[in-house]
Amino acid sequence: xxxxxxxxxxxxxxxxxxxxxxxxxxxxxxxxxxxxxxxxxxxxxxxxxxxxxxxxxxxxxxxxxxxxxxxxxxxxxxxxxxxxxxxxxxxxxxxxxxxxxxxxxx
Length: 106
Prior knowledge:
Number of helices: 5
Order of helices and strands: HHHHH
Mean pLDDT: 76
């Protein structure tokens, strides 16, 4: 068997593996699409959510201006309180909180 025929056989095997990989990938995508049709996800409307999608929800859009302003205020308030409950170290990992509180770091 010559080197050329071995190289051709190797290339052919590599092409077969790539083709099988593409088929498997396409099957996974098709299966995922089928499952998404059987188990659709619907967005949940909640004021406590920090997601901006809430303001595109039909319940928000159909409300009057006063109700929308109240919802926006509650969303801003929820966003603020969510930021307050996070530890200092999460936002400033390289700054020791103790030194900040003692006034050693501005």
